Amino acid sequence: MTLGNLPPNSTDYSKNPELQDLGSLQELDILLAEMGQQGLYLRLDRHRLDCQAFSQLWYMDDYSAEAWIADLRVPGRSLQEA
User: What is the pTM of this model?
Assistant: First the structure.
């Protein structure tokens, strides 16, 4: 899995103090749980492998199809638990 529980870099903690000291995947879990409570859905629509490049395929030499699938399972896991 290439997605890690990295520190978030754009959370406004003055508006979301409960997210302080959480990793990005923990923030995602909280977001998805709240979305579920409000009856909202998440649509995964992934067209880029990274912020820099488009690819005709969903994988590249340095980003395998297996890694892509593993990364897609991260929000799926959170949605199942919500």
Answer: 0.61
